Amino acid sequence: MNRKKQMLLIVNPKSGKAQIRTKLLDILDLFGAAGYQVQVHITQKALDARETVVREGARKDLIVCSGGDGTLNETISGMMQLKNPPQLGYIPAGSTNDFASSLKIPKQMLTAARAVVSGSGYPIDIGRFCGDRYFVYVAGFGAFTEVSYLTPQDKKNVLGHQAYMLESVRSLASIKSYSMQISWEDQVLEGEFIFGMITNTISVGGFKGLVDQNAALNDGLFEVLLIRTPKTPVEFSSIVTSLFLKEEQANDLVYRFKTSSLQIQSQEPVDWVLDGEFGGSRTGVEIENLCQTLEIRRNS
Fold first, then answer.
1. What is the per-residue pLDDT across 117-174, written as a single tens digit (0 to 9) for each?
2. Less Cβ around it within 10 Å: N or C end of the chain?
3. Where in the chain are the domains?
4. CA 241, CA 109: separation in Å to the nearest integer?
5. Contact present, 15 and 66 (Cβ < 8 Å)
6. Beta-ladder partners of 181
7. Which residues of the chain have a pLDDT value below 70?
8. CATH topology of domain 5-125
9. Cβ partners under 8 Å of residue 54, min gap 6
10. Could you tell me the pTM of the whole model?
């Protein structure tokens, strides 16, 4: 008798508009028909997904999570603790689902679930933050980055992208500047910065214009965007033009480059966001790209 394949299914019931509540039985039926014996875990609190993966994941042939970017982050963070992590499946259910968009994982839950069982493993890079934290698609600091984790879940559910825009406009008046030294390879930048973003994606916060649309998710390199502090309204306007209007003119306030690692030192603690969740407040940060560390199931 053939051994049934073992699956751990992590479900965040509050992500997005809680659509999983009406789809879960159909998803379980689909997984069962594909030969999987499914252990379902409904998350109850922060870090629950990570702890469950660490506790149960080593005995599974496949780990699947359904939720938003935060749930995906927790699941992958747990998988990084496993000696031989299995493949990952993802059924997006959040407000933005940046990484799913970048991987062309379907937004429809049942279609995404079918891709989990019919697709093949696609290797992805994982970011390691300060040696013990991980991120899937973005680590960031400064202006607007706190919006994702300070925006209440119910507001995200009702308004979607508009929630991020509303909270971003509110935060415009309180943009803070950080004195930093940023080093990578043989380069060093020093000065005052209002924003930094280290990404492995083609969409951040639902917006595609901020990052290179040709970025590879498994080339061992991050896409880095850094913005110096503007001193005049004209300089602020030039930053917006450079970011969103795609003008090719040089702008010495906006830096874009690729690297596999970088180090950042700041004079005061800086709040970081990892995949939309609070990543801690630090004066020293080291970020590394772990090339093709995990495989995620998707249709090619």
1. 999 999 999 999 999 999 998 899 987 665 444 445 454 444 454 444 444 444 445 6
2. N
3. 5-125, 135-294
4. 37
5. yes
6. 190, 265
7. 1-2, 16-18, 94-97, 144-174, 202-215, 244-250
8. Rossmann fold (3.40.50)
9. 78, 81, 82
10. 0.84
Counting Cα atoms < 13 Å in the Cβ hemisphere of 151 gives 29
> How would you classify residue 2: left for phi > 0, otherwise alpha for psi between -120 and 50, otherwise beta?
beta
In angstroms, the CA 145 to CA 80 distance is 25
Residues noted as catalytic? 277
Does domain 135-294 fall under CATH 3.40.50.150? My reply is no
pLDDT the model gives residue 236: 76
Q: Smallest Cα–Cα separation from 99: which of 202, 18, 215?
A: 202
Nearest to 68 by CA among 32, 17, 116, 110: 17
CB 197 within 8 A of CB 224: yes
pLDDT at 230: 86
